[in-house]
């Protein structure tokens, strides 16, 4: 029972924070459902912490985006079927959702900074493992890399909130830039690297273990910080029974499914249309780079309307247009369609994170809704790349993928129309 019912009810009637604090609320929503009292942090060398954060964030996408340009070569070398290749692109995404709940548990036990260091090493080990031991190492390493990314992705926003509380919005932008840059670099550089290393796909993929180790070296000074702080725990009830929470979760998962189809299969699709592996990787890299524009601007614009439904329809329509253009339109306009795709997907992802905050009355609810949306959502998202592999194997081509794009995209719009309404999830939040 709640020992302070008046305070509990007050949390449901207090005004929502202004829109200008959206980024700060978003960071609160991605930490565990236990809130730390505002103790002013003492950062002796903030530039070193900032450098460490950027380097860590740069490593959260290469393991996902480096495989796609080499997927055909890897499949031919190891004799993988299209369905097995689809599973290979699915496993890391599935692990993002399955292993994310471990992050707060590990942080409470060992300290956030030490966990980040250890997981960077497991990330590097997973990337190296998938480049050795044949198909067994390939799948095992992909699982280990995906699990590592899932854990670190939960912990970094909490560090930003704690040590850069006065610049949360700016640091969130820097964090997003680093994510996009890491994905784009790996997509564009993996094939040239493999050619430079004797046309070895294993060395091209394994190269990305090196940036993870470099990031670990620069992060090492952060592990000397004093760990631990008193925390107050809250329980949120009724989230799984709330329709709005499921609409937010489904929108997160469905739009992410299209994103990871791009990460896993877009270069193979473009190579099937006649591009070389290098050209296909560069197109994907360019599409990911332009995501930064709408990732930063779409939430700002969407929160200035009466709700987010129009913004969701717009970004999802751009995403679908870009996907269909890359799949069916003449190749002389390919770069234009890739840019449209990137603008749509950057806005779709950032709006998914924004909805988690705006549909929650307080940070405790937002934290739990974030866990539900990411845990279940990424599990849903992992089915998209698998479906592409299965359909490609059955049909022997790429043309039928338009049905997958259309069904997922329309379903995301339907879920987004529900999630984009200016309402709150109906739950009970009580202090333990």
Q: Keywords for this structure?
A:
transmembrane helix; 3-stranded antiparallel sheet; MFS; transmembrane transporter activity; CynX-like; mainly alpha; 19 helices
Tell me about this structure.
- This protein has 432 residues and is mostly helical.
- It is 73% helix and 3% strand.
- The protein has a single domain, classed as Growth Hormone, Chain: A (Up-down Bundle).
- The chain has 19 helices and 3 strands.
- Strands 1-2-3 form a 3-stranded antiparallel beta sheet.
- Helix 10 runs antiparallel to helix 14 and helix 13 (243-272) runs antiparallel to helix 16 (334-358).
- The protein is globular and about 60 Å long.
Order of helices and strands: HHEHHHHHHHHHHEHHHHHHHE
Q: What is the name of the CATH class?
A: Mainly Alpha
Tally of structural domains: 1
Query: How many distinct helices?
Result: 19
Q: Kindly provide the radius of gyration, computed on alpha-carbon positions and rounded to a whole number of angstroms.
A: 21 Å
Largest sheet: 3 strands, antiparallel
SS elements, strand count? 3
Q: What would you say the CATH architecture is?
A: Up-down Bundle
User: Spans with pLDDT under 50 lasting ≥5 residues?
Assistant: 1-42, 226-232
């Amino acid at each position: 029972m709640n020992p302070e019912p008046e305070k509990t009810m007050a949390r449901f009637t207090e005004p929502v924070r202004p829109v200008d604090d959206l980024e700060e609320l978003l960071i609160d929503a991605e930490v565990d459902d236990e809130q730390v009292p505002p103790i002013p942090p003492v950062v002796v060398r903030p530039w070193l912490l900032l450098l460490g954060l950027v380097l860590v964030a740069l490593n959260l996408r290469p393991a996902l985006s480096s495989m796609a340009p080499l997927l055909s070569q890897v499949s031919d070398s190891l004799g993988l079927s299209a369905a097995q290749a689809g599973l290979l692109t699915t496993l890391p995404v599935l692990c993002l959702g399955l292993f994310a709940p471990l992050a707060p548990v590990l942080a409470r036990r060992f300290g956030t900074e030490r966990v980040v260091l250890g997981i960077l090493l497991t990330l590097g080990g997973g990337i190296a493992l998938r480049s050795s031991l044949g198909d067994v190492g390939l799948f095992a390493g992909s699982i280990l890399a995906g699990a590592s990314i899932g854990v670190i992705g939960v912990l970094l926003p909490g560090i930003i909130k704690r040590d850069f509380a006065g610049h949360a919005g700016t640091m969130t932008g820097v964090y997003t830039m680093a994510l996009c840059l890491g994905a784009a670099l790996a997509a564009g550089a993996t094939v040239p690297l493999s050619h430079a290393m004797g046309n070895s796909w294993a060395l091209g993929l394994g190269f990305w273990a090196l940036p993870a180790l470099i990031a670990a070296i620069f992060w090492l000074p952060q592990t000397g910080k004093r760990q631990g702080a008193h925390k107050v725990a809250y329980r949120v009830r009724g989230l799984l029974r709330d329709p709005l929470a499921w609409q937010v979760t489904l929108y997160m998962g469905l739009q992410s499914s299209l994103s990871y189809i791009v990460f896993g299969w877009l270069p193979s699709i473009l190579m099937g249309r006649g591009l070389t592996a290098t050209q296909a990787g560069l197109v994907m890299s360019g599409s990911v780079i332009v995501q930064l524009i709408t990732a930063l601007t779409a939430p700002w614009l969407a929160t200035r309307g009466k709700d987010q439904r129009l913004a969701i329809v717009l970004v999802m329509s751009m995403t679908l247009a870009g996907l269909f253009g890359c799949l069916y339109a003449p190749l002389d306009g390919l770069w234009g369609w890739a840019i449209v795709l990137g603008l749509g997907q950057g806005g779709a992802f950032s709006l998914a994170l924004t909805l988690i905050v705006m549909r929650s009355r307080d940070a405790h609810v937002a934290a739990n809704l974030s866990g539900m949306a990411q845990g279940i959502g990424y599990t849903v998202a992992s089915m998209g790349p698998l479906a592409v592999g299965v359909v490609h194997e059955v049909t022997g081509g790429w043309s039928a993928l338009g049905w997958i794009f259309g069904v997922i995209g329309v379903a995301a719009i339907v879920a987004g129309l529900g999630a984009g309404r200016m309402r709150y999830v109906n739950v009970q939040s009580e202090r333990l």
